Every structure is written in structure tokens, then in C-alpha cells.
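Data availability (excerpt). The following record was deposited with the supplementary files.
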Amino acid sequence: MDPLSIDIRRETWERRTEWPLTVVALVFAVSYAWPILNPEIESRLRATCGLVTWIAWVLFAVDYSARLALTRQRLRFVRKNLFDLAVIGLPLLRPLRLLRLVAFVKVFNRQTSTALRGQVAAYVTASTALVIFCAALAVLDAERKSPDANITTFSDALWWATSTVTTVGYGDKYPTTVEGRWVAAGLMLAGIALLGIVTATLAHWFVEQARRSEETTQSEVKDLVREVAHLREQIAALAAHHPSDTGSTG
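Predicted structure:
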């Protein structure tokens, strides 16, 4: 089989499964969050939610395996999708798979620089919201049963996650369990990464504005040079047609 056709088939697979997997991620989010937000949920519903999360995990694994099978350079694919591989290989990280929800940004993509900045802004905003949401759920799930816990409600967890991801860290809420501290470490890294994306986006915007200003100035100078050259040609033509006038004036 032609290797190029394999990559085309992978791209076709990704286009066709993008929105279905986004719906799966939404269902997964609800199934994962419901038992945490409502610890008094019936055991039957809790078991159903657990089953749904495992089914979603299987679908994500099938998606990854299919994309890998349809890829020409598989080692490169694995290196570029280490996050997906970690999520599939480590079920404890499955909540982070919710970051796939930012795929909806691609629907509004316009192939211009302005739209690209909008895409990055939407991506960062959606990613930040999802990271905060997932981290709040994870830390609440880890801390709720600890006797020393000071994060016991979802509002506490949201406040802690927001202050942590922004690298503020007031210290009024903090994890006391090992699992909670692992979540905190991941959230700190995510906050630094998101801050880096925002900084890089702003820097790119300033550089692009400076480049556009320089291009505009150069264009205006070229227009002026053309106008001056045109005026010179007109003056020379007038002088050629009326040499006596020029001489008498002298």
C-alpha cells in the first residue's frame, strides 16, 4: 500500500471521528464528575458512571490505535502524541483526556493571522477552564476523605485550582494527601505552560504589528517614489512640448 495513502486515511479518520470523540469526552466528563460532585449518589448510578468512563477510555484507546495503524511514520507519531499515549496507558490520568474538547476551535479556524491569534486565545481559554475543572475534581476526590483536608467542597477545590494554575498560590487551601499533591504538581506545570503560551502569543502579536507597520511604511515610501517619478516624467514632457516657453522664461 502507498505510504502516502496511509496518511491520507489517517487524516480522514481524524476528521470523521473528531466530533464523535468530542461527544464521548463530554459524556465522560459528566460520568466522571457526577459521583464526585454528588457523593451521595446511588450505588447503581455510581456503577453506571464508572462503566461509562471505562467505555469512553476504550473508545479513546481504539482511536489512538487506529491513528497509529494509519500513520506512515509511527515512531514520530508516538513522539508527537505522548500525552495521548500516557492517558491511555495510565488510567489514573484519564480525566486529562478532556482537553480534547478544545477541538471545537478548529471549526472556527480561518487561515489568516488574525484568526490564528483568535484560535490560540480560544484554545488557551478552553484549556485553562478544562484544566481547572479537572484539577478541582481530582483534588476534591483525593482530599475529601482525608481527616486533615481543608479542601472539602467543590467551591474550595475550584478556588484552590484557580489560584494554583495562575501561580498565585495564596496558601489558604492546599492538598494534604499524596494524590492531591500529585494533582497540584501537574497543575503547577500546566499553569506555567499556559502562561508561556500566553506570553508567546503576545510577543508574536507585537512582532507582527511591528512588521506590518514597517511594511506599511515601505509601501508608502514606494508609492511616493513612483509619484515623484511620474511628476518628473510629466514635467519633462511639458518641457519638450513647450521649449520656447522654457527659453523665454530663462
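Summary of structural features: Residues 94-116 have pLDDT under 50 and may be disordered.
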